[in-house]
Amino acid sequence: MSQVEQIQSAFSLPGGSGRYLEAVYEFVAWLEPRASTTREDAFGWFRDRFNAVKSAPYYLPLLRDFGVVEMERGRYGAIRITEMGRAVLHAERSAGERIVADRFLTHFVASREILRLFAESDRPLGLGEIHRMLGPSFPSWTTPTQIDFRLSWFQSLGLLRPVRGRVFEITELGREFSAKYPPEVAPRVAAVAIVADRPGPALGPLDSLLEELRSAATDSAQPSRFEAALARAFERLVGHLACAWP
Predict the structure, then answer these.
(1) Is a pLDDT exceeding 60 seen at residue 110?
(2) How many other CB atoms sit within 10 Å of the CB of residue 115?
(3) Is the Cβ–Cβ distance between 195 and 142 less than 8 Å?
(4) Torsion on CA atoms 11, 16, 21, 22, rounded to nearest 10
């Protein structure tokens, strides 16, 4: 793994937590037949399909990081589906999921460590608990947001399944991938007081979003992080208002 540049940040895709992979399939299916597609075209697709205007610029780099698209520089640079994108799109669904899972476990920081915690636990684990346990290994993650994104991707790929709220348990497929991709260095897990039948409270999506807004607002090293958090908050507000509108 030392030859692979590790990606620090993950992000969501539209469609709801646990359904990110559906958005991957929809986007590459839309992209494949187009010989010339620009970022502006892709932004329009996310706007029309998911009403996702503000967050669209953050979806495309994520799809690039997952290896299913390649992008030229500039707002009007071309976007093309990659060979991996075609492989995911045209393989049997379970095989396509495995291709994306392989990419996730080999390219995204902390994915192996998080999955290993679930594999070694005899009970479900919650978002807040995972964040506290891995804190010593990833001190720059002052909020659980990046872990939350990874849990949603694990759920989307069938490696974890939700128990309640942001509490998850590992699946048989998750155990298989944890064994296939063990952490190169064991994470320095923090000691956490555990009550076996009552996992610590996990942050809900709104709580996680609020924490990310607070933290990103003072993260001068990553100004785009605050913009992304604002975009997610705005989309959530718009969705709430749409549901509440008589």
Answers:
(1) yes
(2) 27
(3) no
(4) -140
Q: How confident is the model at residue 187 (pLDDT cuts 50, 70, 90)?
A: low
Q: Is residue 221 part of a domain?
A: yes
Cβ neighbours of residue 136 closer than 8 Å, sequence gap 6 or more: 187, 188, 189, 190
**What are residue 167's DSSP bridge partners?**
126, 164
Assess contact for 26 and 69: CB atoms under 8 A.
Answer: no
List residues bridging with 79 in a β-sheet: 37, 71
How many CB atoms within 10 Å of residue 89?
Answer: 18
CATH code of 138's domain: 1.10.10.10
Could you tell me if 83 and 96 lie in one domain?
no
Cα–Cα distances (Å) from 191 to 1, 56, 112, 136, 199, in that order, read 28, 39, 19, 10, 14
Run of H or E residues at 167: strand 167-170
Written as six digits, the tokens of 96 are: 């396509």
Q: How far apart are CA 26 and CA 229, in angstroms?
A: 24
Task: Report the percent of the chain where pLDDT is more than 70.
Answer: 73
Three-state SS at 119: helix
Which pTM was predicted?
0.76
Domain shared by 98 and 174, yes or no? yes
**What's the alpha-carbon Rg for the chain, to the nearest Å?**
18
| Mean pLDDT score, 153-168 | 96
Segment 124-159, tens digit of pLDDT: 999 999 999 998 888 888 889 999 999 999 999 999
Q: What is the rounded CA–CA span in Å between residue 196 and residue 211?
A: 27
* For helices 83-90 and 93-107, angle between their N-to-C axes, nearest 10 degrees: 140
C-beta separation of 126 from 164 below 8 A:
no
